[in-house]
Amino acid sequence: MQTKDRAAAAVRLPLGVKLADKRIARAQARLEGKPRSTRGLTAKEKALVKEFERKELSPADA
After folding, report:
1. Is 41 found in the same domain as 62?
2. pLDDT, tens only, 16-27
3. Which terminus of the chain is more exposed, N or C, with fewer CB under 10 A?
């Protein structure tokens, strides 16, 4: 049964792709212009992020 479900899902793929594209575009629109979230980081990591922002360096430059 599972292979039939996969085949059916493959047929419906274009609709899913369009929906995924819309979701990606919506997420990118929300992120545009906003600072990167530091939620979920440790205090030490947050301090490093603030230090890099203050010095205007990217982590790759450090």
Report:
1. yes
2. 567 777 777 777
3. N
